[in-house]
Amino acid sequence: MSGRQHADIDSISGLESVGENVQLPTTYVVIKLIPDIQEKALQWLIEKIQGKKTDGGAELIVMLQPKTDPREEYTLHISANMVKLLEVAEDIELIKMDSQGRPVEFTVAQMDDFLIDGKKVDDLITLAERQSIILHELGNIRALTYEKSVPGYPSMKLYENQAVIPFLQNRQLITKMYPLHDEEQLKKMAGYWYLSRLTKQPINAIKDYFGESITLYFAFLEFYTLALIVPAILGLCGTIFTETIPFFSVFNVIWVTLFLELWKRKSNELAYKWGTIGMTSLDEPRPEFRGIMGVDAVTGKVCLQAPRYITYLRMYLVSLPIVIVCMVLAYWLMLFSIWSEDYVKLIEIEEGGMISKDYLIMVPSTVYSIIIPVISAYFKDLATYLTEWENHRTQSQFERHRVTKLVLFEFVNNFLCLFYIAFVLRDVEMLRSQLRTMLIVSQTIYNFQEVFLPLGLNHFHKKSQKINKNTNPETQRQKEKATEACSPLLNIPQLQADDRRIKQAENESRLEEYQDTFDDYLELYIQFGFVFLFSSVYPIAAFWALLNNVLEIRADAFKLCTLYRRSFIRKSKDIGAWQRSFEVLGGLSILTNCGMLYLSPDIRSRFPDYSDMELLMAFMCLEQLLLGVRYLIHIAISDKPEWVRVALARKSYESKQALKFERSQRNKKILYRFRTVQ
Amino acid sequence: MSGRQHADIDSISGLESVGENVQLPTTYVVIKLIPDIQEKALQWLIEKIQGKKTDGGAELIVMLQPKTDPREEYTLHISANMVKLLEVAEDIELIKMDSQGRPVEFTVAQMDDFLIDGKKVDDLITLAERQSIILHELGNIRALTYEKSVPGYPSMKLYENQAVIPFLQNRQLITKMYPLHDEEQLKKMAGYWYLSRLTKQPINAIKDYFGESITLYFAFLEFYTLALIVPAILGLCGTIFTETIPFFSVFNVIWVTLFLELWKRKSNELAYKWGTIGMTSLDEPRPEFRGIMGVDAVTGKVCLQAPRYITYLRMYLVSLPIVIVCMVLAYWLMLFSIWSEDYVKLIEIEEGGMISKDYLIMVPSTVYSIIIPVISAYFKDLATYLTEWENHRTQSQFERHRVTKLVLFEFVNNFLCLFYIAFVLRDVEMLRSQLRTMLIVSQTIYNFQEVFLPLGLNHFHKKSQKINKNTNPETQRQKEKATEACSPLLNIPQLQADDRRIKQAENESRLEEYQDTFDDYLELYIQFGFVFLFSSVYPIAAFWALLNNVLEIRADAFKLCTLYRRSFIRKSKDIGAWQRSFEVLGGLSILTNCGMLYLSPDIRSRFPDYSDMELLMAFMCLEQLLLGVRYLIHIAISDKPEWVRVALARKSYESKQALKFERSQRNKKILYRFRTVQ
């Protein structure tokens, strides 16, 4: 509590020395608007961003980037001074480590507690946190009662307290909104991360840069990859000693359960360290949350409220039936593709043309594999729309319900054909070849989509830009003209034309946007299914998956660091709906593996004395037994490590004591009176 | 916060007007010691009870009951003054409703908050709570470093900080320790409870009198009875329209899952209202908990500590194998009884003597049904011993692990023979008759054991006591003598010979002790198994169970109110291991009912076109489907009702704010300095 760091406070200024632009503060977030936006609307938006909280504003600093071309988009650079940042940090309960290394909500009043190890006030809030603070404030820009529509766009009606920024994004006046990368930090991180060989990932640095949600993905991927080592070894052994496969597949099933239970512990451990473990559905609503202002039941503050039962009604009465119909349609499509393949085979036998038959047979499955991604993309939009409409309060809830819908659909797309082959056609050879093809093809396609496609696009973009520049000699004059045309209208500071932020903003604007972790998890999910659902049929799958994942960690890291625009950090306390999705797959794998063992001719030849009936009974018993073991593992392993439980209990105890103390302060007199009676 | 109730504080005295004994305070707890206890030991114990906290004492008031006969046990009446009661109430975080009707930890400082609706200080802590406060303090009487053994008993070694009272109970110097009934309250309650016809139970009054643990049992029994109405109606329909049984048994399985999930909600609701919902394994240890003094990781206070891993090692490496061995032995015993019955049947056919055969056949099952309760009783002791030895920290943990062991064993005793008959012998008729017999016999036996046996014993006791009195004319003289002999030795207040508390203490001392809710739950558990495991075979079981339970509620209430000694209240937040036990039974019922449907000749005759194999497949699919439905119900129904979640979140929010506030008070200066810089 000494004054050792207090001197640093003088350096709080919100100004940073950015090249020659000493007087303009750092850009945290860049907003791009369509080139032909009505000036009124632009002016209104800027005033909102600068405006006071009480006027629905965000109290942020806006800087305009000079336009070099009228056809170019308007670009706003958003910043804030340190006081604002600290205020919001306290408001959104940013978690920081205190001097005892425990995660605590940051408050300005106890700033000294967080200024440890020679940290200065400027180091206290990381760049990523500043960006997310800006996002939070932008998201809270609200329409006032008398603002019935966006100025200049009478058709864009606003209701009271509507979140303005998401609305403008939705109506595509705002085309892009993104934080800027920190190239120095990225370079530092790369050495420990995707450029390193076999070291552990720098989880803390990743979390500071990309936020909890993305880091949880990488932590899960690492944990899963490590867990794959055992099934991979067993799979390799299985290819050598084929008679041990039954044992291995039983073991795998137990291993999967163990892995998922242990991951839950690990995840809770991380969530505790990051201070996200206490997130609940009663936390702050997402900006898109619709409702009317009311007193919050938990905090007693006035904020948006919407009855939860309407969300439930929409979920169960509308979304669920729609999702089920889509799943049934996808199932029919799959059946249709298999049937038409059979049909094509029959036709060709009659006609006898060899070459055309080979081609024709491939037509249904080719058409199917082209249609599926298209349908998936449409369904993704549908699921997002439905979940948005359900109006979930928090981002975590929103994501959980969106992911659940998508996973159900993708389950049908990816796994149902395997079930069909395994249990209806009962063709083990076809199943094995299908597994092999799908595993290898899907992994290749994903890696291509993820890394090489954006890499290529990037390259192409850069080239075309260069050509553009070369063919356009008038740029400089136009730039100045545009700058002049703009500045008197909008009375805000402008960046100088040679500010290096302009180049960075433009470069990163051309990068692809990183939507969320869904595609990355989905890739693992599908792989997980291919490896474990039928591990008795194709045990080597685990080995290929392991190899792939070692590369995957690096590919994903590389992709995020260099190929995508930076995204805002998202908090989350766990991997959300994915935990349950993987668990369901784990449970199903018991059913499928026992089923495959029963169907396998290998087993039958080994127990020739047993009738079909007895074998079926035996594998039914095995399945029930494994389900029992799974349940036992589930209840024997506690969700949180002992130390996390103790730490949480301590915190809750301390808060309870503080509450007691506060109350006792209020009623001190009575104690005194009571004692004097004795 | 006005002074409206402050005048009541003057009435705080700890003294109550009990007949003529105005100067002696109310008896809360009675302790009985063996008649021939060493005077030194008695003196030591009394001094301990009166002694200061720092000397390992309890700071309570002790009164001696005059002995009428040297062969009579020593009887101590324990009391405490109001200040002591309030102090401990705060210390053990007694939950009380505050003026807003929310459960809050009681503190003396905010006493005004709890004095609502004209309550006086004397009404604040119920009699049951006072008794449990006394128990808590008695339990915390500890041996000091220099107290190496109980005075007068050199062989009874004590270690430092050993809990004295449980030790003396264990060594049988203390024979009984019980709180006194409140006859007025009991009479009032009876009218609403077991004497009423079909009204709801007075849950709040029961909770105030008997505590959370017993009340949860009654709440569960009521909830279960209500839930039984639907299966009972279906069962009745089933006996009329026999072809609908398959549908009913499938429905039952889903009903059971729903019932258990909804009960969890109900139970959490009650736990919230009672303020027990926050109980964790890190709460205050039970008196029997052994360990060394250390700093508690949660509260930072110095209290007993023992490493948790030793408990785990003992549980998994010692207790678990022992329990499994016992289960296997019980299983063999069951098999042996069935085999010997078969064997007897065979013998008799050869010899041909009709009457002796009928008798002989009954011998194995009779012997078995006599042996089982005996073994069960022994196993109960073993389980209690093992769980004690595992050294669980809290009472809830202790009970959960004890109940788990017992339930596993009782499962084998009660249900395994049904499984054997159903799936090994595959004799549906035998199964049905077995179910009928066991259901009716067990319910009759239980009701007899519970109500009529104690009723008879009580009657017998009273009679014999009367005779004793009449045949002993010297009593009065002896009484006076004994009183004189005693009083100079023990320098403590004595009750007057005509104090009506003496009669009450003696009467209640002769009542049976109510151990815990285990036997009551077990009865329901076994009934639940008989009703749902094979509901497709004997659907009317639900109806008999419903009838029985309507009586059961009243019988159990009557028993607790009149036949048993009052027990100390036990807190609990849920029904502990029973929830899981019922859930496992619910899960198994899916398996058994599908199995029974497959085996039923009825089904076979209805689908003559299907092969055995196809039928088996069909019922396997049905089982998997039902398991899936069960899982969906499980995840769709939240464990806590929305309002409880909101209330908990609000409380946690308030405490967090208080903690923040407390911290900010500490660092106020910095805020000021920081603001001035701006």
UniProtKB/TrEMBL annotation, chains A, B:
It holds the Pfam family Anoctamin. It is a multi-pass membrane protein. One of its GO terms (cellular component) is membrane. The keyword Transmembrane helix applies. The keyword Transmembrane applies. The chain crosses the membrane at residues 216-241, 247-263, 315-339, 359-379, 406-425, 524-547. It is found in: Membrane. Keywords: Membrane, Transmembrane, Transmembrane helix. Residues 206-650 form the Anoctamin transmembrane domain. Belongs to the anoctamin family. This is Anoctamin. The lineage of its organism: Eukaryota, Metazoa, Ecdysozoa, Arthropoda, Hexapoda.
